[in-house]
Amino acid sequence: MVIADTSVWIPFFNRPDSPEKISLDMLIDTDEVALVGVVLAELLQGCRTPSERTALSESLLALRYFEVTQITWLRTGDLSAQLLRKGVTLPLSDLLIAALAIERDCRVYSLDAHFKKIPGLRLYMPVPI
Fold first, then answer.
1. In a structure prediction context, what are the per-residue pLDDT tens digits for the chain, which is 129 residues long?
2. Helix (H) or strand (E) holding 19
3. What are the CA-CA distances from residue 111 to residues 10, 88, 97 (Å)?
4. Contact 65/35 with Cβ under 8 angstroms?
5. Rounded to whole angstroms, how far apart are CA atoms 52 and 43?
6. What is the pTM of this model?
7. Which domains does the chain have, with CATH numbers?
């Protein structure tokens, strides 16, 4: 299972010939992609019209969804503290995605290089086409 980050969904929706679109289409077709709340919220905040919001939410809500629990928040805080001790500060939203991925034994598909700094996180690397 793969949690796709917002950085991958944006080209998926905006650039039909992008490698991210091709990779996510394959993950969706094989039911291997999961949605998390923070990504859903980040994508919805970029909608310009109510109809765009409706179309986006309908397509995303068809995906498997992972909910955040109290344990997830604890893991997020622990990851953040561990990284801060090394002098690394990452966005809370990305730490939350990482905590969910670790908790659910998933990989993260992202274009943001800072995910590589998160200990214990496995990344999804699409096969070049």
1. 999 999 999 999 999 999 999 999 999 999 999 999 999 999 999 999 999 999 999 989 999 999 999 999 999 999 999 999 999 999 999 999 999 999 999 999 999 999 999 999 999 999 876
2. helix 19-29
3. 10, 18, 14
4. yes
5. 11
6. 0.93
7. 2-123 (3.40.50.1010)
